[in-house]
Amino acid sequence: MAIQPRNTKQKEAIRSVFTEAGRPLSHDEALTLSQEIVDGLSIATIYRNINVLVEEKWLSPVEIPGDTTRYEIAGKEHHHHFQCNTCGKLFDLQGCGIEWKAKLPKGFRTTGHEFFVYGLCSTCS
Questions:
Q1: Which structural domain, as residue segments, surrounds residue 98?
Q2: CA 88, CA 76: separation in Å to the nearest integer?
Q3: Confidence of residue 112 (pLDDT cuts 50, 70, 90)
Q4: Is 86 among the domain residues?
Q5: Is the pLDDT of residue 58 over 50?
Q6: What three-state secondary structure class fits 27?
């Protein structure tokens, strides 16, 4: 008999924060936003619950070159990300308008790609 994962008020607050943010969040961002819902949440609770949500495939990690991992709700269609140079927040860019296949050397086969855009978000600009 499989053990069902527990749904605690902390875990529900973390889910809510990711849903409402609509963008990838770091552990620290998730902590700050979750503490507005559940007083006294610790960073250890955030790490533990994010790890569980990744294991449950509810969250997916977003690896950022030279920066900390962010997490977003899993199951989104292929997309890329924009990172603000000032506040460091990460935002989704819908779709993929990059024409890169024609630039591959002959005989190369693609297994995936990453593309990040950097600049200033609307709040910081």
A1: 79-119
A2: 22
A3: confident
A4: yes
A5: yes
A6: helix
